[in-house]
Each structure stands twice: as C-alpha cells, then as structure tokens.
Amino acid sequence: MEMIVSTPVTFTESAVNELKRLMGEEDFNTTHKLRVGVKGGGCSGLSYVLGFDEKLENDEEFDFEGVPCIMNKSHELYLYGMQIDWQDGLNSRGFTFSNPNASGTCGCGSSFSV
Hints:
Blueprint: E1 9-11, H1 13-23, E2 33-40, E3 46-53, E4 59-64, E5 67-72, H2 76-79, E6 82-88, E7 93-98, E8 104-105, E9 111-113
Parallel strand pairs: 1-6, 2-5
Antiparallel strand pairs: 2-3, 3-9, 4-5, 6-7, 8-9
C-alpha cells in the first residue's frame, strides 16, 4: 500500500505552470529550489517569501508536481494548508496566497497576522 504524504502548501495548476516556466528559463540556476516562507514585516506583521534559493540547514524539502520546494521547519506553523495561485489578469498579476492560518491580511495580500 502506497503512503500518501501531504505537502505543507499546495499550488494551483496556473501557479505550477508559471513556476515551471520560470524554471525553464535559460539563466535559471538548477541548484535552486522554490523557497516558501515568511519573514517579519509588512502591514500585518508577517510577509510571505516566495523565490528560488539554496537549501539551508533548517529547511525541509518537498516536491509539488515536479516543482522542488524548500521551507524552514519553523515556518510550517504559519503556512500549513496554504494554497498559492498565479493570477495573470488585467487587474492583478502575480502569485496570491490563500492562508487558512491567517487571522488577518492586509489589502495588498502579501502580509498577514496570526
């Protein structure tokens, strides 16, 4: 019987497609993985971190549909169950975050409080 391991965060199909497009660019550093995390600051207390980076000592690795990801172990408390989407519309373009752990978010959607 195969064990299903859940990932701490999920990505929509459009987000996976955009990440794979970025990973396919000529100047992409293939040793980098997608870092998903948080940092202090922003209008609501914590800001999301999403970018390609080297793995650090306290990082856990996971893969989502072929996108290699890393996350600092201590950030999972804030991010577990979050879904990341890619919007490519006239009004909004970029990655958006739907976080069930956030008690409040700012108007720009890039920071939150717990």
